[in-house]
Each structure stands twice: as C-alpha cells, then as structure tokens.
Write a structure and sequence with these properties.
By secondary structure, this protein is α/β, with parallel strands linked by helices. It has a single domain, classed as DHBP synthase (Alpha-Beta Complex), CATH 3.90.870.10. About 30% of the residues lie in helices and about 25% in strands. It has seven helices and eleven strands. Strands 1, 2, 3, 4, 5, 6, 7, 8, 9, 10 and 11 form an eleven-stranded mixed beta sheet that branches. The longest helix has 12 residues. The radius of gyration is 16 Å and the shape is globular. The N and C termini lie far apart (about 50 Å).
Amino acid sequence: MMKFFQIHAENPQERLVKQAVEVIRKGGVIIYPTDSSYALGCRLGDKSALERIRRIRRLDDKHNFTLMCRDLSELGVFAKVNTTAFRLLKAYTPGPYTYILNATREVPRMLMHPKRRTIGLRVPGHPIAQALLAELGEPLMSVTLILPDATEPLSDPYEIRDLLESQVDLIIDGGYGGIEASTVVSFVDEEPEVLRIGCGDPEPFQSL
C-alpha cells in the first residue's frame, strides 16, 4: 500500500525520514522533493526499482539517471574529480546542479553513459533530500518527476498522489515543488561546459 508522508521542508521529522529510508531499502520507488523539482528515486543498483521508474517515465535504457549524493566526499567515490572541478563543486554544492563527470569503477554499469563511461551526480541542498541521504548512507538513483509528453515537472504533491499512487511506494509531501530542472554542467573535458540551463545559475561555469 502506497504511503504518503507530509515531511516538514525545513525541519524534516526524523521518525518519518527513517520510515522513508526503510521503504527505499526494501526496494521501493519513492517521490521526494529536491532543490530543483520533485524526483523519482530508488536504491543504488536496484534493477527492479529502476525498471519501474523507467516505465513511469517511459524511458529507454539509454536514458541516464543521476546519483544523488550527500556531499562531495560521497560524490568522489563515484566520479573522478580534477582540481578545476573540485574547486567549483566545493563552491556550488549543495545546489541545483547536475555534474557530468568521468565515472569510477564504483558506478554500476547500468548507470553509466554506454560509450563515454560518464555519470551524472548531484549534491542537493533541499533539507528533505539531505535527510534521506544522510539516513540512507549511500546515493539515491534519481530522475526528475516529469511525465511522458509533459513539458514541466509535477509540483503539487496531491496531484502527484492522484496520478501516481498506484505506481510508487511512497510520496513525500514537502510542499509545492519547483518546475525547473537542474542546471547541467559537464566536467568531462578540460574546461567545464554548461549543457542545460535550469534553476542553477550557469554564470560561474561560463566565465572561466
């Protein structure tokens, strides 16, 4: 039976966060708020949960998921970070940015770009997302909650429940969410490249 938790956006209730993480650990698919928009998430390496998310979004197996990390040290386990990248990441994380970096061997093959061995990672600033990641102790596989044929992410938790309660295990109501995706910055080559402008200010990565 689907759970619907109302979690305080600034001071997440520890009891509900622990229950949410139990859902994730048992193979559940959750919907939770980030500092850009609501997102779908599941446990790292859980193929069954990943396929459920693909069905909800109607994604093919080439769509890249993002790893939501708690902090830079966790991010560094899964990505190779050079000096330039580290300096910028330290200045602008947590925040509404997705960083494309060369993957380490710790990244499951199903999450990597099939040709370039790259991975998208985020360190979200939203208190609920941070609380979930701290309690879970590992990254979340994640993708923006935007339905097929839609142009913007879903932002109303009650609309989300009406549309998706039969397809997920937990919806976290953290208030109205944003309707912009994160800004995507690639550090695969020597200089950073802004691949998508979203709700994170791209200027710091364009003025080098």
